[in-house]
């Protein structure tokens, strides 16, 4: 918010010295005696002219304008006070200061096939997402440049490309075998870079049942700090305790991490999400620091699409 400007008048005392105040008169009398001059005879008094009657219409006009000026000044002062005392959002025409959120397009969940239940329905114990997984990906925000390499072939990303997100060769080999053993069906991914240089990668991995995601994938992946498999560029991380509780989505298991100082040229934030038969990984990185607000916004919106 912009603070109202405070205008301070500065007067020059040299130009306007204060006049002495007296109870008798407000006139200022020159006390310097003039030079002596001869005294001339006092002329006979001249009768004062008759006073000219004032036009009452002029007086009324002056009074009306004086009253109008007083009213306008009072109204103006009241309006100024009201604006200063109001929140920025209460003043029409003044936009709120950005808190860092991105402008995403309107999000609409894809339609389910006829007769198919949602992932949390009682008639869907496997927690299956019957909608096309590619349609459940969060779209890029306005003004972002898409990372076309994450589109994969026909919208499906290879397991090898997903594993490239992890730093250590041993982690890639172990995780790759785990995904194979537990029946990974396919991976949908999307990535983009915003104007401030933040790079975002979203991966959705779908398995046969929610039990596989809950017990064999999500739990093992986030059971420790640091997590089981190190994300590229995030050597030292901690749980993101600052992630607001109100930003979480009911029914969605979520764990967030943030790289701690001293980090390298950029900071990394990432989150693991488990929703039914889908396990999602969201990674954001930015030179200097990965900002918390767009990260939280991205995680929450993707959770809503899956939940």
Main sheet: strand order: 1-2-3-7-6-5-4
The number of helical elements comes to 5
Low-confidence stretches: 1-44, 52-96
Tell me roughly what share of residues is in helical segments. 10-25%
Q: Tell me the distance between the termini.
A: 35 Å
Apparent shape: globular
Strand/helix succession: HEHHEEHEEEEH
Structural class: alpha+beta
- What oligomeric assembly is this protein in? single chain
Average pLDDT works out at: 77
Proportion of residues in extended strands: 15-25%
**Structural Rg:** 38 Å
Reported for the largest beta sheet, the result is: 7 strands, antiparallel
Number of strands: 7
Quick description:
The protein is of the alpha+beta class and 307 residues long.
Structure write-up:
With 307 residues, the protein is an alpha+beta fold. The chain contains 5 helices and 7 strands; from the N terminus they run H-E-H-H-E-E-H-E-E-E-E-H. The protein has a 7-stranded antiparallel beta sheet with strand order 1-2-3-7-6-5-4, sandwiched between helices. The longest helix has 30 residues.
Using brief descriptors, characterize the structure shown.
307 residues; alpha+beta; 25% helix; globular; disordered N terminus
Q: What's the structural blueprint in terms of helices and strands?
A:
Layout: H1 56-85, E1 145-146, H2 159-163, H3 169-181, E2 186-193, E3 199-206, H4 210-222, E4 237-239, E5 253-259, E6 266-275, E7 278-287, H5 292-306
Antiparallel strand pairs: 1-2, 2-3, 3-7, 4-5, 5-6, 6-7
